[in-house]
Design a protein that fits this description.
There is one protein chain. The chain has 375 residues and is mostly helical. The chain has one domain. The chain is 58% helix and 0% strand. The chain starts with 17 loop residues before the first helix and ends in a 29-residue tail after the last helix.
């Protein structure tokens, strides 16, 4: 009978020096301890009705009736007491136009199809590198992470679309096939400007890996996203009046507590805060340690988002966690291998005997796999 010892994938942590491994372990324990001492105080948000969801739905309904998007947004923002300043208080028009075109049922269906595609893509990228039971855990987590997006009426949340588009873009990108990934990443940034860092991560990793042509494509996508964001800023400025409400701002330094509130917007929504405080750093560790370009890009994106949200985001912005929801929990399936290698590198357990010819990311008991599984 096979057991977990047969899973001898070498993670990035396997080659750490004892001192570096102890540093990583200390950072992990500090994050867990901080989360246990300062659990998130805000409850998960982002329901399909009321509040922001009702605002977005009403704007889309006005657009469907023929009204120009920015006039519709101005009318609904003022009627509901929502701010029109600064321009980032008004969402980009893409989702409202899509909802007006497809209708609520059609938009819900498209979101569900996107969630399924993202879950399947994530599972397909990870499954070839895993063995039972971790392969099944990764597939289950990928499917469960997408389950949060199937509730009727959730199509109004821009962050859901952006998170799923980024997830699918990561899954379908390979060394030789990256054009669709660029298109999906651009769509994510146009859906919600909070997804813009994804374009930077993909451009940076492409450049450092020597894929200059791909890097130029990602850079062009980022430039286009900036240009359209400037156009959005000008359009919002043209409808704003001196007496319109101004947002209190988002620079509030919520710290790790706010990051944990974002993490709860995933399939961890019903878990006790203490469990989320432990699971979130472990999931991050799993992604950061896993070998291959796919995991590297995913870890960089999650790390950049969470680092930014340490200082940006109010307590009532916890629904921003929909950006992270399709990806973050899946890292828990990768955490056991990371913890094993971390313990060995730190000297807390004896190193495994790895068969000759074994290399990072490959089962020592299996023949070499094609390099494409790491891209």
């Amino acid at each position: 009978m096979r057991d977990s010892k047969e899973l001898i994938i070498r993670t990035r942590l396997a080659d750490l020096s004892p001192r570096s491994a102890l540093g990583v372990l200390l950072a992990l324990l500090m994050l867990i301890g901080t989360g246990l001492a300062l659990p998130p105080t805000s409850e998960p948000g982002g329901s399909p009705s009321g509040g922001d969801a009702a605002l977005y739905r009403q704007v889309a309904a006005r657009v469907a009736s023929g009204q120009h998007y920015y006039q519709a947004a101005a009318t609904e923002h003022r009627a509901s007491g929502y701010p029109l300043k600064p321009f980032t208080a008004v969402r980009p028009p893409l989702l409202a136009e899509l909802g007006a075109l497809l209708g609520p049922s059609g938009a819900d269906l498209l979101l569900r199809l996107l969630a399924v595609a993202a879950a399947v893509g994530t599972a397909m990228r990870l499954a070839p590198q895993l063995r039972p039971p971790f392969r099944e855990i990764a597939i289950l987590l990928s499917a469960a992470a997408a389950g949060a997006f199937v509730q009727a009426g959730m199509w109004v949340w821009h962050e859901m679309w952006a998170g799923l588009l980024c997830t699918l873009a990561l899954a379908c990108r390979t060394e030789h096939r990256w054009r669709l990934s660029v298109a999906l990443g651009l769509a994510a940034a146009l859906m919600r400007e909070l997804a813009f860092p994804f374009l930077l991560v993909m451009a940076g990793t492409a450049w450092t890996s020597g894929a200059r042509r791909e890097a130029r494509a990602w850079t062009a996508a980022a430039a286009l996203a900036i240009a359209l964001l400037v156009a959005h800023m000008a359009a919002v400025a043209s409808i704003a009046l001196p007496g319109d409400v101004t947002s209190p701002g988002w620079l509030v330094f919520g710290g790790w507590r706010f990051d944990l509130a974002l993490a709860r917007q995933s399939l961890m929504i019903n878990l006790p805060p203490a469990v989320v405080a432990v699971a979130t750093p472990l999931a991050l560790l799993g992604w950061c340690a896993w070998p291959g370009a796919y995991a590297l890009r995913t870890a960089a994106l999650l790390g950049l988002w969470l680092a930014a949200f340490l200082v940006v985001g109010r307590a009532d912005n916890s629904y921003w966690g929909f950006l992270l929801a399709p990806l973050l929990p899946v890292g828990l399936a990768l955490a056991p291998a990371a913890l094993r290698d971390l313990a060995e590198a730190a000297g807390f357990r004896s190193p495994r005997t790895v068969a000759a010819g074994a290399r990072r990311g490959v089962l020592a008991s299996e023949p070499s796999r094609p390099e494409h599984i790491h891209r």
